[in-house]
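Late entry, evening session. Most of the bench is empty. Finally got around to the prediction I had been postponing all week. Sequence below, unchanged from the version circulated by S.P.
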Amino acid sequence: MNARTSSTAASWLSLIVIVAVLGTGSAAALAQSATGPFVMRLSDTRAASIASQPTTQAACELGTADSAWTAIALDGWRRQSRRGLHAPPIRFPTLVLFDSLCSYTLLPAMRPEVDVTFIGAGQPFAIRGAPHAGTIRLPNGETLPASLVSFASRMRNGDMFFVMSLPSIWRASGRSDTLATAVFMHEFTHTQSTAFGSRIDAWSGRTTWP
């Protein structure tokens, strides 16, 4: 199974997770993106204009509400992926989240001496926050405008990372927190495409096709 097939399989499997969050009717609106490119980007000029506002806060710290939303989204993905997808153990990617002022990079903490500032789905993370001035720097060295966006991609070493604008940007663009959570779950599934592909390969190898 090639990388594209693995990604497509993971995309379709992620619809089960979306249905669990939104219900079948609302999930249908996202069905087309499940078979689209590996990277899905949603952009909105209103969100971009908000993100370009000058930074006024002294320190970039992930707020209580955003921290809670991120934990709920990660916990929900793990719960539904186990229940609906029988997914393999999660290998957590680096997460890049941002609001109108700051970017927050969540690094999976693999060693006990790492300063853990957030836990989601049982995984400790160290958070690095910084003002973004309207431009988000990604782990693969690329940049993008701080607008409405959600996608997964790879770093130069092959490891996955995940990018998501926080709910405040979604609300400013007329989208709900529920939709933001559903898109999070759909796109986060792409970070696990390699593991899903390996399981599908193993299953297809044990199956006799007509």
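Two things to note before I forget:
Residues 3-202 form one domain.
Strands lie at 94-98, 102-108, 118-120, 123-131, 135-137, 143-145, 150-154, 160-165.
Will write this up properly tomorrow.
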